[in-house]
Amino acid sequence: MCEINHKEIVKREERGEIVIGIDPAVARRFFTSTDHRSVQQEIGEALFIERFFVKALFCLGVLSLLAGIVASIFAIKWWSVLGIPMMIVSWFILGGRASMGS
What we know:
With 102 residues, the protein is mainly α. It has one domain (6-98). It has five helices and no strands. It is elongated and about 60 Å long.
């Protein structure tokens, strides 16, 4: 198998010769765990904005769950005893399904 550098892959993808797909779990792990300096040295591009958005949206998911729990306490009072566990279970199920690979 011949080695193709990153710039050649990008050019081929832009021309529509190849289609690149990455599983969401792999992409999230890449943007949250990989050292950005080594990535910049390898591909020649800084991924600061992409890393920021992935980490920010990950944090916003948790914050939205907490905001929903607080809002349910004020909005539906004692019914939130049923609503809060349903919200938490739904959050885990949807989060797990969103990060599953194909």
